[in-house]
Amino acid sequence: DVKVTQSSRYLVKRTGEKVFLECVQDMDHENMFWYRQDPGLGLRLIYFSYDVKMKEKGDIPEGYSVSREKKERFSLILESASTNQTSMYLCASRGGTLDEQYFGPGTRLTVT
Amino acid sequence: AQKITQTQPGMFVQEKEAVTLDCTYDTSDQSYGLFWYKQPSSGEMIFLIYQGSYDEQNATEGRYSLNFQKARKSANLVISASQLGDSAMYFCAMSPNHNAGNMLTFGGGTRLMVKP
After folding, report:
1. Residue A46: predicted pLDDT
2. Interchain CB contact of A81 with B (< 8 Å)
3. Which residues in chain A touch residue B4, judged by CB atoms under 8 angstroms apart?
4. Could A48 and B101 be called an inter-chain contact, meaning their C-beta atoms sit closer than 8 Å?
5. pLDDT tens by residue, A1-36
6. Of A103, B14, B20, B108, which has the most beta carbons under 10 Å away?
7. How far apart are CA B14 and CA B17, in angstroms?
8. Which among B35, B44, B107 has the least Cβ separation from residue A100?
9. What is the mean pLDDT of residues A30-52?
């Protein structure tokens, strides 16, 4: 089975802190994604990566950066956390016969 | 730009009955893929079913089927014989097949609640 893991299920940070969210997949997938999920808005793409050290902006990249130093690991970085970044963050990797995306369990981030 | 619309924020269904979750989409692409995901309260997104824009047959996967009407740009999910474990959020999503990253555009979701 494909396994996508995220470093934390719940996280509470203060405004202005630098925040790291880690995602690891074990299926050797090339493509990985970070989404944020807010009620009524569904999932919105923040960044994606199609190879090591390669990244592309998604729909809402402002306030975020990413890092992919190894194929299995894709990190989302909040340079200076703000209260409007309080959200659920979901990581995914893409593979499978239908190129479907496999998701991690999510990190619920609260910025106070 | 692609857009997915799910017009039902929440729905109730009686256990063992069938239910249809609506999804309409907007795209100028000729080739695309449509996906449905389930998100239980645990938070993890679970892939349910896929329909390619050139597939002539509606996709089926166990109790899930996709009612694909290309001309109307709709891709409704039908769940037959609902079970209590089907209570969850359901998301419709689309990807352009020509996109190497296969980015998904998601709808706002429908919360399904199955009554015993």
Report:
1. 96
2. no
3. 42
4. yes
5. 668 999 999 999 999 999 999 999 998 888 999 999
6. A103
7. 6
8. B35
9. 91
Residue B100 tokens, joined = 């190497």
- How does the average pLDDT of chain B come out, rounded? 92
**pLDDT tens, residue by residue, B21-76:** 999 999 988 889 999 999 999 888 999 999 999 888 999 999 999 999 999 999 99
- For A42, the closest of B33, B35, B109 (CB atoms) is B109
State how far Cα B21 lies from the chain centre.
7
Mean residue pLDDT of chain A comes to 92
Rounded CA-CA distance A74/A32 in Å is: 7
Q: How confident is the model at residue A37 (pLDDT cuts 50, 70, 90)?
A: very high
Residue B22 φ/ψ, nearest 5 degrees = -85, 145
In one-letter notation, the amino acid at residue A47 is Y
- Residues of B with CB below 8 A from A104's CB? 44
Measured in angstroms, the CA of B114 and the nearest CA of chain A are apart by 20
Residue B100 pLDDT exceeds 80: no
DSSP assignment string, chain A: ---EEES-SEEEE-TT--EEEEEEESS--SEEEEEEEETTTEEEEEEEEEETTEEEE-S--TTEEEEEEETTEEEEEESS--GGG-EEEEEEEE-STT--EEE---EEEEE-
Which of B50, B102, B106 is opposite residue A43, by nearest beta carbon?
B106
Query: Measured between CB atoms, does A94 come within 8 Å of chain B?
Result: yes
